[in-house]
Amino acid sequence: MKIPTLLYGKSQLAAVMLALHDPEIEGVEEIDHHRCHKVAGRASDVYAATGKEVNIHRVTVWIDAESFLVRRMREEYKALPGQVSRDTTSFQPTVNPMLNEARFKFSPPSS
């Protein structure tokens, strides 16, 4: 999971961005006409019983320089020779969008 776990901290769900180790700012890039800070680091999982670190991979996050919202996230895994293993997720977040109250009304079915 990516963003929902950041919004619901009490859920105790795993979030790659919360497990980012050794993050470094790699510059500024434009994503969908938004100036973004490019931050990269590594993520991994740890077996609780042994403490062994596994699934080590590179994570890059583009954070909007104005709103601080996540615009893009890329996870790159070690792949077999000649292959690329990459998962890129793009976001189009909106701050305080206008919501139609009608979407929140519940009309129970008649019996």
Question: What is the topological layout?
Answer:
Elements: H1 4-7, E1 21-31, E2 34-46, E3 53-64, E4 70-77, E5 85-90
Antiparallel strand pairs: 1-2, 2-3, 3-4, 4-5
Structure write-up:
There is one protein chain. The N and C termini lie far apart (40 Å). The chain has a single domain (4-93), classed as Clam (outer membrane lipoprotein receptor (LolB), chain A), CATH 2.50.20.20. 4% of the residues lie in helices and 45% in strands. The mean pLDDT is 86. It has one helix spanning 4-7; strands spanning 21-31, 34-46, 53-64, 70-77, 85-90. It is mainly beta and 111 residues long. It has 1 helix and 5 strands, in the order αβββββ.
Count of spatially separate domains: 1
Q: How many helices?
A: 1
Q: Output the CATH topology.
A: outer membrane lipoprotein receptor (LolB), chain A
- Helical percentage: under 10%
Order of helices and strands: HEEEEE
**What's the total count of β strands?**
5
Mean pLDDT over all positions: 86
What's the level 1 CATH class? Mainly Beta
The computed structural class is mainly beta
Second CATH tier, the architecture? Clam
User: What ranges have pLDDT less than 50 throughout 5 or more consecutive residues?
Assistant: none
Estimate the strand proportion.
Answer: over 45%
- Radius of gyration (Å): 18 Å
The biggest sheet, with number of strands, parallel, antiparallel or mixed sense and barrel status, is: 5 strands, antiparallel
Order of neighbouring strands in the sheet with most strands: 1-2-3-4-5
Gap between N and C termini, in Å?
40 Å
The general outline is extended
